Fold:
Amino acid sequence: MQKMTLIIWFAVALYSPGFVSAAIWYVSGGAPAGGDGTSWERAFRAIQDGIDASSDGDTVIVGQGTYVENVQLNGKNIVLRSTDPSEPGIVQSTIIDGNRADSVVSFLGTEKASCVLAGFTIQNGKADYGGGIRGGTQETQTLATIRNNIIVRNRADEG
Structure:
């Protein structure tokens, strides 16, 4: 009887939300098109694709290179980072370039401190508020952790 109880408990534990492990998503600008982000060999080509695939608690790791895009965290409590956020050379060569189209990185404003942005050069954003990083709205400001980034050449919209 005890063996049966243990098997049932183990089966329940595997399918309980608290036991689901966080996923790691990979992004590489040099990856072949059509990747699903599950490995470096099958990496997404765009950072936003990694964010969109992720769920709270996941990590999106971005390979070195320049990514011309404006990314939105959309309230997700994820870790978005370069391959080594503590290595200055990697931070300098993992670039999110906003192409002066909007804020480079935008937070919805509902993110918690467990949401992390780390290890990027964030450049060429242009927006009324937060050309480099927009932290939400006047009503809701993000609590995201932003560390080990270089934020340069961003500006307020002049129009």
About this structure: Residues 23-156 form one domain. Confidence is low (pLDDT under 50) at residues 4-16.
